[in-house]
Amino acid sequence: LGNGLLTSSGKRWARDRRMLSNVFSTSMLREYVDVYKDSCAILLDLWASHAAAGTAVNVTQYIPLLTFEIITRCALGIDAQYQADTDPTRPHMRFYDAVQKATAITSGRFRKALHYLDFTFLLTPTGRRFKEL
């Protein structure tokens, strides 16, 4: 993930955020309505198959895949079918897994005061693992 908007701070974060603000304007987001509809249709089909089989649906499993699919389609132009093809050996799922791990590490980092600073965080096993992602 490097030193991007999700992981940077200070002046670099402010600069990157300003550059992205136009990308997320209402007029720009309207262009992606079909992507949202298509991805939600896949989700509803998956849930309908569970309903037809009478099985429970764990929404915490599906919502992150839906979100990731929409983001990668809109931001990167990649239609990797995250919801339909969850084989962990596939390259798109390895990417998804790396982002999930980085997100978990980042959110856990803010629960430990000594991990707030990059210097101390990167000295920890978790910090080293994060840097490898």
Describe this structure in words.
The longest helix has 21 residues. 65% of the residues lie in helices and 0% in strands. The mean pLDDT is 87. The protein has 7 helices and no strands. Helix 3 packs antiparallel against helix 4. It is mainly alpha-helical and 133 residues long.
Summarize the structure.
By secondary structure, the protein is mainly α.
Question: What's the structural blueprint in terms of helices and strands?
Answer:
Layout: H1 10-21, H2 26-30, H3 33-53, H4 59-76, H5 91-109, H6 118-121, H7 125-132
Helix pairs in contact: 3-4
Beta strand % = under 5%
In angstroms, what separates the terminal alpha carbons? 7 Å
Radius of gyration: 18 Å
Please bin the fraction of helical residues: 55-70%
Number of strands: 0
Quick one: biggest sheet? none
Question: How many alpha or pi helices?
Answer: 7
**What is the H/E order?**
HHHHHHH
Key features of this structure:
133 residues, 7 helices, globular, mainly alpha
